[in-house]
Amino acid sequence: MRRFSLWLRGQPFVADALLAVGLFLVDILVFVSSSDGLNGPLFLVFSVVLTVPVAWRRRLPRSIAAVTLVTTTASDIAGSMAGDAYNGHPAALALPIMLYTLVAYVGRAQGGVYAVALAVYTAANLFLFDQPLFTTLLFNALMYALSWVAAEFLGARRAYDEATQARLVVAEYDRDRRAEEAVIMERTRIARELHDVIAHGVSVMVVQADGASYAIRRNPERAEQAVANISATGRLALSELRRTVALLRTSPDSDDMPQYGTAGLARVVEMMGRAGLNVEIEQTGNLDDISPAISLGVHRLVQESLTNVLRHAGHAPRAIVKVVREDEAVTVEISDNGTGSEPSSTAGGGHGLLGMRERVAVLNGTLSAGRTPHGNWLVRATLPID
């Protein structure tokens, strides 16, 4: 029964057709059970004319309301002309039904006009057909008032349902948008981590390979050392890649994230030194007790900046790394000797500076990069400590 009710709610014409059939059956029941001398054919004709239009009440509410009022008036006149045995049609209940329909589906203004018309119709019946004054007024007023109140209740219910549906649509849109943004952020995070690991290792290996190719004939020992450095760098990059993949499977704020800290910076400096970059590091404060996210951020900033120095600082590159741990923030500065070109996102198709800016933004920090008045390239980042 509940399924049928839900289905019927989605089929308004079928529901109205069943209502019309119900009114017609009530009319026929009165006709069959009446012992008065009703004019059978006339009664049946008006039973059909009064009830059939009800099936279209929600499709053509104004027209059906007018038709119902006219046909009801005509049936009263015809019944009165048929004689005293005529007592009216129960199907005249279509009048309050149409009042309800106008108020609920068209508006109060149209319903008010129709209510005035019904009042005129009731007064005309009292005057022309000598009906009981008190009974007729009470019954009609009660029926029309109930129709209006029911329509108002339905209108409020429909407005509530529409508002609820609108909120559900907005909530669904917000949910989809948040999911899409989360996917984009996660993809950016993965791309940033993989770039930092792979680009760093590959850049060092490329520099070492170029040096080996130049020295392979003139200085085989140096070429052999460069090849050994390439092998060590490749293994380290592979290990770092495995660690990064494992890291990406956890939350950025997870306690399982590795602490890079002082030992991590030392490894980066050692690797870059083997690649031919002269690196000096100055560290103030303890980096081993900060959050894993900040520790990783410092490590990646130094790693990416030194890689850029190695690639762009020209002959005999040199870099100075300063890391200062304070109570509220960690400040990282990386500068070169200013003999090469500026690192850019177009050089080698890389996104080093962009990746650093994104990482610092995620950590709610600030980053600046550019030439100083002395001609060297300076990267400076400040990462707040939660």
Automatic annotation (TrEMBL):
Keywords: ATP-binding, Kinase, Membrane, Nucleotide-binding, Phosphoprotein, Transferase, Transmembrane, Transmembrane helix, Two-component regulatory system
Transmembrane helix listed as a keyword: yes
Record has Nucleotide-binding as a keyword: yes
EC number: 2.7.13.3
Residue stretches making up the Signal transduction histidine kinase subgroup 3 dimerisation and phosphoacceptor domain: 186-251
Single Gene Ontology MF annotation: kinase activity
CDD domains in UniProt: HATPase_UhpB-NarQ-NarX-like
Annotated TM spans: 12-32, 38-56, 63-82, 88-106, 113-129, 135-155
Cross-referenced Gene3D superfamilies: 1.20.5.1930, Histidine kinase-like ATPase, C-terminal domain (3.30.565.10)
Domain DUF7134: 6-158
Catalytic activity reported: ATP + protein L-histidine = ADP + protein N-phospho-L-histidine
Pfam families: DUF7134, HATPase_c, HisKA_3
Domain of life: Bacteria
InterPro entries the UniProt entry points to: DUF7134 (IPR055558), HATPase_C_sf (IPR036890), HATPase_dom (IPR003594), Sensor_HK_TwoCompSys (IPR050482), Sig_transdc_His_kin_sub3_dim/P (IPR011712)
Residue ranges occupied by any Histidine kinase/HSP90-like ATPase domain in the UniProt entry: 296-385
Alphabetized PANTHER family for the sequence: NITRATE/NITRITE SENSOR PROTEIN NARX-RELATED, NITRATE_NITRITE SENSOR PROTEIN NARQ
Name listed for the protein in its UniProt record: histidine kinase
Native species: Rhodococcus navarretei
